[in-house]
Write a structure and sequence with these properties.
hydrolase; triacylglycerol lipase activity; nine-stranded mixed sheet; Rossmann fold; AB_hydrolase_fold; globular; AB_hydrolase_1; alpha/beta; Alpha/beta hydrolase; 11 helices
Length: about 300
Amino acid sequence: MNSALQFQISPYTSFMQETKVDLGNGIQLHVEIGGKETDPTILLIMGLGAQMLFWPDFFCKSLIDQGFRVIRFDNRDIGLSSKIRTNGPRLNAFKLMSRFALGLDNKGAPYNLYDMADDVALLIDRLGLEKTHILGASMGGMISQILAAKYPEKVEKIGLLFTSNNQPLLPPPFPKQLFSLIGKPESRDEQGIINHSLKVFKHIGSPGYVNHMETMQTAQKLYQRSYHPAGVLQQFLAILCTGSLLQLDKQIQKPTLVVHGSKDRLLLPSHGKAVAKAISDAKFELIEGMGHDMPPHFIPQLSGLFTHHFKS
C-alpha cells in the first residue's frame, strides 16, 4: 500500500479508514479502506449518482470478516471526490436515450465510462495494488467490464451486481423506476431530498424489504455528506455516451460472477443474463425477491456468493 497516503478513521464506519487519492489526471477520489493489508483486496465500484456509502457497512464488514481487504470510493462527480465542471453544450437526454436503446452512438458528454474506468485503473496504481478483485454494482458493473477488458493485468476476478452491458434492444427500465432515479426532487432542501430518496427506493428497491426509517436516515446522512445533482446527470450522460459493451465483454477472460435480483425493475434480469452470456464462462445467479438495492435481508447471501467466487 502506498505509504505516502494519509489515513484517518472514517467518520461513518469505525472499521474503515479514509483518505484522498490524487490520480494525477486532475481528479482526486475519496477512498475508504478496511481489513488486513495482507488479505486479498476487493475493490467496490458503485453505481449512478451513488456515493460509496451505498455499499452497506454490513456488507463491507461481512467481506472483511471472510478474509478480504475492502476498498470503497466515491466515483468522480459524486460524494467527496472531484466534481467535473463543464461549459459544453446542453444535451437532450431523451434524444440520447432513444439512440442509446437502438445501439446508435452518442457524443458530447463531459466524460464517459471509459474515463471512469481509467480513474479506477489509476486508483489501483496509486494504492500500490498488484492485482485486485473488482465488484461493481449497476453503473459500477459497467465500469468494471471496461476495466477488466482494458486492464486485465490489474484484475484478478470480477463480481457484477445488477448491471448491464447496454447491448442494443435490451428491455428498457420501467418508466416509473427510471424517472424516479433521474427526476427532480420537489425541493432542494434536506426534507425535499429525503422525500425524493424515499420515493426512489420505493420504486427501485426490493419489494417488502425497504425499511422506511433506515432509508430516511441514509438519505439524510448522504445529503449532509454531499449533494451534487449535476454529477448525477453527468454520470447518466456518461452511460448514454458510452453505449454497448458487448464487444468488450467478448474480450474478458477473467472468472466472472454476475448476480441479479428477480424483482429488479430498473435493469431487468435479462440485462444481467446478457452480460453473463457475453463473457466467456461467466456464471449467473438470480436472487429471488431482490430489487435494485442491497437490503440487510439479502446481504448474507450476496456476501456469501461473492466471497465464494473470489476464493474459489
